[in-house]
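Allow me, if you will, to draw on your knowledge of protein folds for a short while. Thank you for your consideration; the sequence and its C-alpha cells are set out here:
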Amino acid sequence: MIRSLTSRFAVGGCSSPDRSLTLPACRWEGARRLSAQALSATVVAALLIATPLAASAKPSGGESEDDWGGWQGLDSGFLGRPRQAKNLDLPLEERRFDTTDLRHAEARRLAKEIRRAERKGTGDQRGKGRGHSRSSADTQTAQTTVSAATLQQALTLEATLAPVTPVTAAWLRTREAGLYAVSVADLAQGMGQTESAIRNSASGGSLSLATGGQATPWYFDVANDQILFAGEAYQTFYTDENAHRLALGAATGNPMAVTGTKFTRRKGAARPFRDTLIFEEEKSCETCLKYDTVTLAYASEPDADYWFWDYLSAGYKDEIQVALQVPNPAPSGTAELRVRLRGWTDLVAGDEHRVYAELNGTSVGSTLVWDGFAEAVLVADVDQGLLDPSGNNTLTLRNDYDPDTHPGEYLDDVEIDYDRLPVASDGALWLHEIGKGVQAVTNFGSPDILVVQSPTGSAVLRQDARVESDSAGGWRVTFIVDATADYLVVERGALGTAAVAPDYPVVPSLASLENEVDYLIITAPEFLGTAEALAAHRSVDFGSVKVVRLDDVYDEFSFGRVDPTAITRFMDQVREWAHVPSVVTLLGKGTVDEKDRMGYGDSFLPVALTVTPWSLAASDDRLLGIDGDVPFAIGRLAITSDAEGLAYVEQKLASYESDGLDGERRAVLAADNPDEGGDFHLNSDLLAERLLDLDFTAVTTLYHPDDPVSTSLAASSTWETEYVSYDGHGSYTQVGNSRENFITVASATALSNEILPLFTALTCAAGNDAHPGVRSLASALVLNPSGGAVAAAAPSGLSLDADAQTLGNALVDRLFDPFEPNTFGGALGGAKADTAGEIPGFMARIYSVVGEPAVRAR
C-alpha cells in the first residue's frame, strides 16, 4: 500500500556478521570485551574458532569516539562466526581483460600460483637483519621444483609479449633473496630495444639499477650476456614480490667492483655464521582468515597483519605442532627462539593467556603469560644440540588455563637465530657478518661458483676465490675475508631469473603539479576497457577526464611494489594539482586477501581498513586519505571482470542518464521490525515525511512483519522507482536476518526492473566487498546488468542507528535538494561534512558510494 506520512526520518540497525543473530543494534560500541556466556563449546569445536561479541551502552557526556576501552559491556554476548565463502561467477582466468596492454595479467596469476605452491611446505622462511632478508633460498626441493616450472611458464609468457613502444626503463621483479640474472635478450625484448643498445649501456656503465629508490650494484657478465644483481626478499602483508628499476642512459651507473683473478692459496675453515630464519604460514582457507572475528583482536590496529598460522582454544584445541626446517645447525652454541602470539579473547580479569613451548619434545623457555588482545612473544634460549642435524624440527605449543575459562591465542610466526654451518642449500648460501679470516663454503654441485661480497652494499664480485672439489664429491669455495661483511655465494645454475616488465612513462608524471583534471579514474589494469568507456561517457559533462592505472601509481609512489598506501600518497599529491578533480572513481574489487592466499583471485584494487568500536572495516575514505574533509565525490565499482564493468557503463549507466522523469518522483521505504536496535518503522515514517517535503509525489512503505517485505523486495516491480531505502538489520550479503532474508545477493541478481533507483542501505555491512570470494548486497544490486540499482550508499561495517540516522538525513537533504541538486557521491561527501562532530568519525569512513559517484537523482 502507499502511505503518505507526515513525520521525519531515522535509520540503522544491524545483524551479526553471519546473519544468524540479531544484535541489540547498534548500541554496542564496547563490543570488544568478550562475554564468557557467549563462548559456545559446540560452535567453537565445529567452526575451529568463534570469537564472541558483547554489547554495551554508549557513554553520555564528553567521551571521544576513541574512548571505547572505557565503555562497559552488557551481560550477554554474541558469536561472530566465519561464513563459508562462495566463488564469484567466473573463474579467475575469465575475469581478465585480454589486451596487448594487459599482457602481464596472466603472469601475475601464475605468480600467485607460485606462492600457493610454495606454501605447501614448511612456510615462508623470511629473514630480518641489517637491511636484508635472510635465508629465503632455503626452501624444500619439492617446492623449488614446482615453483621453477610455474615461474618458467610465466617468464615464457612474458617473453612472447613484447611491448609495442620502446622504453628506456624496465622493472625487474624477483621474489626470494639471492643472486639474479637477466639476459640481454630478455631485456631487449622486454624494453623494445636492440640487444646492442643494452650491451652498449652496460659496457659503458650508463645503466642504473635501483631498489626501493636506492642504487643497487650490478655486474655485466659479458661471457654469458647477462646482467647480475643481488635481490633481497621483500615480503609484506600485501606482496611477496620485490621490484628493481633498470634504466638505460644513466649519467652514472653503479656497477659492481671486481677483484683480480689471483686465487687464494690459504686454507679456509668452514666457520659457522649467525643466521636468522622466520617461519610463517598464511593459510589459504576461509577458517584461517576468519575476517569477521580475527580483526576483532586488531580493532585498534588497521594496518596490522591479521593473517595467522594457527590457534589455540582452551578446552577445544590445547596444542599446536608446527614444522621448522632449520638447515645445517652447528653442533654447539646457543640458539634463540622467538614465538609471536596474539590473544583473541578477553574473558576474565587479569592475565588469562598462558602458553608454553617444546622443541623436539623438550621444554624450552618459560611459560608466557599475558592478557587480552595484546601481542606477546615467547623467547627461549635453546642449546643447539637440541636442533636436529637433518634440519627437521617440531615446535609444540600448549596452553594452560583455569577451570571454566576458555582463553584463545593465535600463532603468528616463529623466528630463530642460530649458528649455521656454511653449507650451500640448493646451490646457494647467503652468509651474514662473516669476520676476518679465510672462509670456506661447501656442498656445491658445480665448480662454476660466483662469490659476491657485500651484495646489497658496495658490492664486489670476488674473482679471487678458490674453487676445488671436496671430500663428499661436490665442490667447495674458499675466499679471504678482510673485514666483517655479508657474502652471497651461488653456483651459476642456481641463479634466480628476474621477470622483465617495461616501465612505460606517464606524461605528465602523476606527481606533477601541472595536472589539471575534473574527473579522475583509478583502475586496476585488468579493467582498462571499463575505464576508457567511463572516461568517454563522462567527458561529455566533465572538461578533463584522466585514467590512472594502479601499476603506474605503484611505480611512482611505492617504487614499483604493491602497497595500498601508495594510493594514499598519490591522492595527497592530487590535492596539490593545478586543478583538483571533483570526482574520483575506483575500478576493481578489493579484498583483505591482497596476496590471494585463499585462491579466489578477486582483489584487484586494494582496500584500506579503518578502526571501528568492534573490529576493522574497509574504508575508501581512508584509502584516499580522507579524514573528515571530502574534497571530491568518490565511489567504487567493485567489478571482477571487464565485461561486467562495460555492461554497467555502456548499458546501465547510459540508460539511467538518458531516461527522464515521467513527472513523478517515487520512493520505496522498507523497514525491519522494531527491536533493541531501533524503531525502524518510526524511522521510515519520518523519512517518508522528509521525502514528501523534498517534492516526492509518492512514498510506498514496506514494514516487517505487517507487510511481505521479502516478497516485495524480490519483485522487480518494487524497484521500478526513483529511490529505495532499507532501514534495519543486515549483513554484507542480505538485509534482515537469516530467517527474514528480505533481499539477498541471489535475489538482487535476479531483478529485471527497467527504471533504476538510487539505493541507501541504512543497516550494517551491506556495502562490504572486502570478503574474498563474496559479493556484497550493494554491489549485487549495482552490477546486475538487467535491473537492481544504478548506485548505492552503504556501509562496509557495523553501523550505529542514531548516527546513521543523522548521516542519512543529511544525505537525503543534499541529494534531493530542488534548488541545488548534487551528485550521489557529492551528496554523501557533503553529508559527511555537514555531520562532522555530530557522529563518530568511523561512521563517515565506513559509508561509501557503491557504483559511479557522479550519478544524479532523477
User: Anything to note?
Assistant: The radius of gyration is 30 Å.
